[in-house]
What we know:
8-stranded parallel barrel; 372 residues; alpha/beta; 17% strand; 14 strands; single chain
Amino acid sequence: MNLLFSPFQLGGKELKNRMVFPPTTTSFATPKGEVTPKLVDYYRQRAAGGVGTVIMEPGVVNPRGKLTSQSMEIYTEESVTFLKEITGIFKTNGAAAFIQLAHSGPRGRASFLGERPVSPSGIPFFQDEPVEELTREGIDRVVKDFVAAALRAQQAGFDGIELHGAHGYLLSSFLSPIMNRRTDEYGGSNRNRAKIMVDIITGIREQVGNKILIGVRLNGKEYGEQGLADSDAIELARIFEAAGADLLHVSALEVEVPALVGVAAIPATSAPGRNDPHGPFLRYARQVKKAVHIPVIAVGKLDNPEVAEKALAEKDCDLVALGRSLIVDPNWPNKVKDGSTPDQCLYCNTCFKGIAQGGLICAVNPELKAKK
């Protein structure tokens, strides 16, 4: 595991190894979006387990962008104070500290937003959830909210932020040919659909300069009719690099779109299941890495150390994300380094069901078992 445990230079920050804990919503925050002792302890365990970089779960940039009823917020000045405690934990354990910035867009629910979710084109993500198309003024507001959130992240001590442009949330929906049917400068070509992301990156650089690293999470592929193709993802990656991104995190989204877009639900998953092979999204990370000059994170069932090491050796990616692996066993990196066997994820996706129902749970980790 020579590469997996080797240091890596990201911008001016040295990462102690190539392993990343990617952002996963926990719903451990309060209904007001405040950090709780349970959330702090959750990240303390993962930072202490030996991972080199932690990308904290999504901090939502405004109240209408909540992903769940208990999404953590980063849209008030109070958030700076409570997030400082967590960045302190990351730094004490030698882990680089990132936070994902997100807006639910059409994946929000009126039941916890108190109003209709927003979408680039008024196309719903869920059949039973009508959405509102964003106006130009609404887009400008979203851009300003992301920029303000990045400034708060820098003030809270984070080394970097990640803009969530994957998995069907708001920025992802702008990038997607499925969800974005606008006819103005925010729709049409890849460059137009990427404009909102470019505006955010540019705005962050204007406000924060190089004091914070900027990552972008994107879909390397959208499976499904009219979805984002491999070539689209490559072009978008180059656009983000030119705009000033320091890092790309390449995921994928499996979608099924009905003949009449917006009439029915859009089933989607970004989580490989138990019947999928290890590393099914590596090919998308590889194609993006070949096209850009900035580092790339690969994600998606990389809990086999040999698969992760091979991905680095064959230059599919520069860093590997271990999401559910570290939910199951926070000490995965330390155990692999010591030659012992970590607890194994079942890929049953119980964790995601828990998030939607009030809090992350795990079928394996006893500290995250569902309460009876």
